[in-house]
């Protein structure tokens, strides 16, 4: 943990580590290809079915395994080699992408094919995500962990800027099938990069021994620490409502603004642009605070509510940049806080529970928001998508303030620190 804001020269400090540099380089290509596939998948389902609900069902099929099975992935990550798990999972994801590419390029792709492959890919994610989260610590060690998490988020959003834009062009020019082919190639590159990582330079922890009650041990650990429990609760609301943004953007691009696949890709790119700025901003924070995590989540909800009032594509696009910024401030700081608050011996299990909430919630949110968009209108659906996280953040904030006997104090004369959090017991104040 650091107590002062790190200098700008340390923004990319974890890239000085050779193993992480190899991993991060391949990861940039991989996440760009994943974004390409995600946009192509959603748009192809919308074209084949003509239904926003069908897009939501695709999201459900891909994320329902995480909702049900993700804790098993955490147990695997604590017991076995994270590097080996990632090699197997990325190889499997490449095979699935190749199958999708073949079906799409030969004109045989049907909606049920997408549902089935999305479900199998969801099973792969169950093993991949907990191992990926914990593997970062093995690559860089605890001193560089926060920086590496922020850079991983930055890399993911750089891919999110490039991938949707390229995918939109591909869909328009030659068809979405080529996006799946690119992802199959990227998965192959990822496997090769994992082979190139030097095992002797990894900072490994002792694997957890097989025993009864390992999952419940992780559950009890999560519930016992507010810095893990409350971010996980907030992540649940964000994932069910706020992270279904892609479903709603498809409806806005197709039904409201008539912008087509290119417009949908552009909206995804704008969200990713804001998210990249949010991820980079998170590298500048000196201290992790629970209240900052909850505030970022509430801000994201408010921005989505404002998006529901956007009168045109330009205004909506600008708001999407801000939404991306707020969402990544929450996601990155929440991930950092949970990992830094967790003992390394149970980190795989705790992270699997956190990811189960964050990813699995989208299995519920995708169909729900698609249904709301079709039956109430996309504007009302966007209002709900933002309103529920904002309400949850306000409720959690009030709950924590009452437990800590805290209150807000305003001093408009102090332009540098106009808002303070004050202890009602007289123990001083903190900058809000």
From TrEMBL:
Pfam families named among the record's database cross-references: MFS_3 (PF05977)
Compartment list: Cell membrane
PROSITE patterns xref list: MFS
Transmembrane region(s): 20-40, 52-72, 84-105, 111-127, 148-171, 177-197, 228-253, 259-281, 288-307, 313-332, 353-373, 379-401
Domain of life: Bacteria
UniProt keyword terms in alphabetical order: Cell membrane, Membrane, Transmembrane, Transmembrane helix, Transport
Signal peptide annotation: none
Membrane topology: Multi-pass membrane protein
InterPro entries: MFS_dom, MFS_trans_sf, TM_effector
PANTHER family from the UniProt entry: INTEGRAL MEMBRANE EFFLUX PROTEIN-RELATED (PTHR23513), STAPHYLOFERRIN A TRANSPORTER (PTHR23513:SF11)
Name under which the protein is recorded: MFS transporter
Species of the source: Arthrobacter silviterrae
Lineage: Bacteria, Bacillati, Actinomycetota, Actinomycetes, Micrococcales
